[in-house]
Specification:
It is a single chain. By secondary structure, this protein is α/β, with parallel strands linked by helices. It has 27 helices and 23 strands. It is globular and about 110 Å long. The N and C termini lie far apart (66 Å). GO terms for molecular function: 3'-5' DNA helicase activity; ATP binding; DNA binding; hydrolase activity. It holds the Pfam family AAA_19.
Length: 692
Amino acid sequence: MPDPDPANTPEQEIAIEQAFVDRVYDRVDVLRADAVGDRDAGYRHLAATVPGAQFERDVFVYRAARRIADLDSQHEGLVFGRLDFDDGRIRHIGRLGVRDEEYRTLLIDWRAPAAAAFYRATAVDRQEVSRRRVIRSFGRSVEEISDDLLNEDAAEKLPVIGDGALMAALGRKRTGRMRDIVATIQAEQDAAIRAPGRGATIITGGPGTGKTVVALHRAAYLLYQDRSRYEAAGILVVGPSAVFMKYIGRVLPSLGEETAALYSLGELYAGVEATRQDRPEVAAVKGGTIMLPILRRLIRQTPPEAPSELRIVYRGDVFKLDAADLAAARARVFEKEPRPNLAKTEAGRALLVALWRKVKPVLPDAEPAKFSRDVGSRGEFLTFLDHWWPDLDPAEVLGWGGDARRLAAAAEGHLKREAIDAVAESLRETDFSIPDVALLDELRMLLGVKPQPRGRDRIRSWDGIQEVSTAQDRFYDRPERQARDAFYEDYAHVIVDEAQDLSPMQWRMLSRRGRAAGWTIVGDEAQSSWPRPKESADARRRAVPHGRVHEFHLTKNYRNSKEVFEYAAAWAQPRLRAIDLPEAVRETGVPVEAKTVDPDALLPELAGAVAEALEAVEGTVGVIAPYDRHGELASVVHDDRVTLVGPLESKGLEWDAVIAVDLDAVAEAHGPGVAYVVLTRATQRLKRIDLG
C-alpha cells in the first residue's frame, strides 16, 4: 500500500482502501474457485468403496463445502476495519481471515486475538495504535471511511477522515432486523464477547447498552475459538418471544455462523410454538415452583377415559377389581415407580397381585406363578392394562388441569380457589401459552422419557440401495433444527437473553438443555416482568452449574437518544429500585411528546401520530399498546414500516420512532419494569398517548 499522506482527500483515501478491498476479493474469488474444485473432485471420487475411503471422501467434501459457505456468507462488507500502528504496520480487519498466495496474512478475522486492538484501543490505552479506520462498503465498493486518531503525534503523518463510525452507525435507520456490529464493537462490549466459554458469563446493563448483540457476537466468537467443541455439541440461544427471535435471526448468519440453535421460550417443547401471553396473575402462578407439587399430583390421577372395573374369569369363577381396588393398585405402582410412562410393567404386576388376593381365598390350591402366567398373557387383560395405564402425553395431562375439579384436587393446600379457576380457564384454551411450555417440559420428565433408538443418519437410501451420504448433503439438505430439536440436552453453551424475566419453571426447563454447558446470561433487573425476583434468582443459581463466574457491566446506552432516555429514566427512577442508568451517547434535539386524550379520541390521535412518525423517520415505527386494545388499534397499522406489539413482545426490540399507548395500564398490568422497557425502545422519537 502507498505511504500515508496527511494531505489526502477523502476521495483519495477511499481509492486507497478500494484498491486493497479489490485485492482481497480477487483472492477470495480464487479461494472459492479452489474450494468448488475440491468439492467437485470429491464427488467424482467414485472409487471410494470401502468405509475408510468413503469417510475420507466425506470429510474432504465437507471441508470444501464449509469453506464455500463461509466465503459466500461473509461476502458483503468483507473488509470493514484498518489499524495503523506507531511503527508503521498496517492491519486490515474483516469478517474472516484471508491469506495471500504466499500464505501471508492479508485480512485478519475480527474474532482473532490480533484483531482485539481494533475494539479495545482508546486514547488512554492505545495499544500502539495511531489510527483506527472503519470502512463501510456496499457490495465490493467502498462507500465511506471514518477515522479515530488515537495518537495526536501522528496527525502530521496520517490523514483523518470522517467524524466517528459509531455515531454514524447509531443514526442509521432501523430495518426491522438486528444488524451485526462487527465494525463498531466498543471496548467494554469486546471484553464480554471474548470472555472464556466455560463457567458462567453474566452480562448486565441498562436499556440500549447492546447486551443482546454482544451475546450473539459471543456465540460467533466461541465457535471461532473452539469450533470442534461448540459446533459438535451446539450453542443454544434463547430469547423471550418469537417476535424477538425473528428480529435477531440474521445476526449470526451475517457473521458466517449457521449452526447455533435459536429458540424462543415458547418453542422449547417439540411441536409447540406458543405465542400467547397469559394474564400476569396466571403467568405468576404457572411460572412458580408452586406448580411442582401440583404437577406431581396431577400425573398420579386416574386418566379420564380409564376403565373403573376389571372382571376376569379364572377356573370358572368371576373375579372383580372395583374402583377402590384399582385406586389402591395405582397407588402401589407409584410407590415403586413415580414416572407413569416407565411403569407399565409395574402396573401389570400390581393388577395381578390385586387379583391374586381375590383368587387365593376362593381357590386355595391355585398356584401364584401359574395364575400370573395364565391371566397376564390374556388378550383381555392386556387390553385392560393398555386402557387403565396408557402412555401419557404431557399435553394431554396438562389439559386435565382445564377441569377445575381435577386441578383443585391436585392443588389442594397450594392454591386458592380464585387462582385455581384462573389457571384452569387458561388451560382450557385451544392453544398453549408461553408459560405452558415450561409446564409441558416438566411433565415430560415427570411422566418419564423412554429411551429412543439412535438412527444412523449417515446412511441414505435411493430405490432400496443404501449409500453413505456426503457431508455436503447433510450440511445443505438437513431440515432446520433436525439434529438438535427442542428436547436436545447436550449443548456446550447456552445463551439466555432477557434473563431477568425468566420464571423458576423456565429456568428448570433451560437447566435440562445445559447440564454440562457454559452459560452466558444477559439481563437488566430493572426491566423485569417477573413479580418475585428472589424466587427466580434462586432457580437460576440451581440451573447454572457451579464454576467460575465472569461478570461484565455495560455502561453506555447506544440505542436511545439522550432526550428519550432521560425521559424514560425520570419516569422509572421513583418507581423502580436499584435501577441501572447507562449514559446515552448522542442527542437528536427531538423532545419526547406526551398527550392525554379521551378514549373515544384514541384512534384518530394514534392515526395522526403514526402518519407523523412515518414522515419524520426513514426506518421503522413501533406502536406498543396493552393487549386488550390491539383489536381496535390494528386498523391504523397499514404500513409495512409500522409494527403493533404488546409490552412483553417489545423486549429487546427497537424502532426509529415509538408510540406508547396507555402506559399507566401497561404498568398496572405488568409492573413498572415492563413500562420502562416500553419507554426505551425508540432510537430517535418517542410519543406517549395516555387516556384521560
